[in-house]
Amino acid sequence: MHEMVKGSNVGLAALSEDVGSVMVGLAWSSDTGEGDADVSVLLLDGNGKVGNDADFCFYNNPVAGAGSVQLLGKTPTAEGSEDRIGFDLDAVPPEVERIVVAASRYDGSRFDGLHDLRLTLADGVGEPLLRFAIEDPGAVSALIFGEIYRRSGVWKFRAIGDGYASGLAGLATDFGVDIDDDADDAVPREEVGEEQAPPAEPAPAAAPGAPPVIPAQAPPPASPPAAATAEDPPAREKRPARPRTAKKKVTLPRAAKRSLAENDAWREARLFPASALKSDRERETRATSVVLSVMAQVPEFGRRLTAAFGAPAGRMETFTEVSFPHGETPRRPDGVIRVERAGKLWTALVETKTNGSALRADQVQAYMDIAARRGYEAVITLSNDVALEGSSLVDVRIDGRRKHKVALRHLSWAEVAHQAQMLIRHEGVGNAAHAWLLQELLHYLQHENSGCHGFQNMGAAWVPVRRGIDDETLCQGDPRALEVIENWERLVRQVCLRLGGELGQKVLPVQRAKRGADPRVRRAELADQLCAVGRLHAVIRIEGTPGLLAITADLRTGKLRTSIEVPAPESGYPLSKAKRLIRQLAAAPADLHIETLVEGDAPGPRGTLERLRPEPADILPKDGTQITGFRLSLFKGMGSGRGNAESGFIRSVDAAVDRFHAAVVVLLETQAPRRSGADARTDAS
């Protein structure tokens, strides 16, 4: 991998032959594991400015440049998580000469509060090409990591690493994004239309697809970004302020319309019926056809699932049961995806498994060989399993002598359902017909007969490991403990996908590890801890909550604990802090456990909410020790079965997380509501 230093540049073609589509990852870490920033991309013309507002790509406008740039969201990694951006460089509009990749912090936070800031760039098959580590970002709240730019028709990358003390406002102004002088000019999300005028009253939210509304006056950047070189022409005058308008996105309401059926025995007709499915072969064939068909008909959905695999933004067609010659016996992958852009074709073979069936290495190997011979770009496996970083689901042989590289990618059915739910419930699609198609797809995936339910089995080692912990015969180094740790990680990732789809927020597992650490080493250490203490532990971050949600499964006692630590208010008397917390938790379950966190290692007072409601002072330290926060916990019995039955472990974890979030987390004061385009998380105000 090519290591970059600040100010250096490199031609992408010199690093790989497959740079028509590239993937950029931005990552960082923090002492608490809670530090975060929002990614943005600006498409600049020859004047170093955005051509129009749609060339500013951010969380409320995740696709820009006619689909050539797409924000793909966060992906868990061994070191925490990584924001990924897909670039189809062959499809970037010809007037775009530079693409700036940046990130911004909010609520007064600065990048010097984060560690291990880094950018990585990978080619179309996922091979890492370059890495740029930013050692000292400075006290800035917006940071340019780097830029991809054209020189003589060739794409190059420049490492920048400079930022703006003025935050997102300074960054946006510098590159010509329109800035509204008055919040009155903003158009609220719920009222946006094709030709709609601004509302009569101020509204803080911007339309989806429009750039954030940012105060016009912003102080100059902390230091001039390296992107602004002597080659750049003088900046244009700032264009006059104007109201935002955008094309309305269609989402579906959560509550179903009142049914016209005479009684509950009547069943609504479905586009994709699942009730008659009997065999695994029928399930695989039906599921493949249903998903591929919807991908081709709903561009936002098809692009969402393929952009992360290096597919370009273009016209998509999908096929099923295609036969390919392969030795003496023809091979028939479950599906084929083809995307056409500017006369070029991107092709992926699809192998599908449902109902917990495992992928077969010989099948996948055959499809990899076929794809390599025919010049296809990828093989995509789709099953209930969840892929883990550093741990392959199937072992395949990749011939390094072949000039054409084939990427092997994996999708879980849980991820397919997550993306469908995010689009139809939260982000929106182009029209009502597309929203209805995604709704029908989601109904199909969630039907008990579809076999597309995501990770559903803790594996053959689950029962022996539980017994070994119970009778204290499980020894460190036992490979069965490692299998349980891997499946626990898969389950936690699926919990995050499901909860994030329901909430429309980022929900990610927190995995603290040293930069560059092998994830397999981390899992081996966790397996040894499991043998020693008999507990599985995970932490997840839910955007907008005041703390991290912890999940602990004690295999010795058979108890599940869900908890969150919330900081104590900085001001006020100790008794006022306790009373305020009790008032916040007025609707919480009576069996909620509350523990006071104090300075030092000593444990603080604890008690149930039922006991503390009449006497909040009982939660205060008797010796007057400084209160730092409170830990809130709920306990429930743990399912014992390895599968997804009502009495199984997986169902019990899902139920525990859902109950804790709905009954406790939503009652707590959040750090900030979901930030709209209007407030834009600016640090300039």
In short:
This protein has 685 residues and is of the alpha+beta class. It has helices spanning 167-174, 280-297, 299-306, 361-374, 413-427, 432-446, 462-470, 479-503, 519-533, 574-584, 609-612, 649-663; strands at residues 2-4, 9-11, 21-29, 38-44, 56-57, 63-64, 69-77, 80-88, 98-104, 115-122, 128-134, 142-151, 154-164, 315-320, 335-341, 344-352, 378-383, 407-412, 507-509, 535-542, 549-554, 559-567, 593-598, 606-608, 627-637. The chain contains 12 helices and 25 strands.
Number of helices: 12
Structure class: alpha+beta
Strand content: 15-25%
How far apart are the first and last residues' alpha carbons, in Å?
40 Å
Low-confidence stretches: 181-246, 671-685
SS elements, strand count: 25
Reported for the largest beta sheet, the result is: 7 strands, mixed
Average pLDDT rating = 83
Could you explain how this protein is built, in words?
The chain has helices at 167-174, 280-297, 299-306, 361-374, 413-427, 432-446, 462-470, 479-503, 519-533, 574-584, 609-612, 649-663, and strands at 2-4, 9-11, 21-29, 38-44, 56-57, 63-64, 69-77, 80-88, 98-104, 115-122, 128-134, 142-151, 154-164, 315-320, 335-341, 344-352, 378-383, 407-412, 507-509, 535-542, 549-554, 559-567, 593-598, 606-608, 627-637. With 685 residues, the chain is α+β, with helices and mostly antiparallel strands. A seven-stranded mixed sheet has the order 1-11-10-3-8-7-6, with no helix packed on it. It has a seven-stranded antiparallel sheet with strand order 19-20-21-22-25-23-24. A six-stranded antiparallel sheet has the order 2-13-12-9-4-5. The protein is built from twelve helices and 25 strands. 23% of the residues lie in helices and 24% in strands.
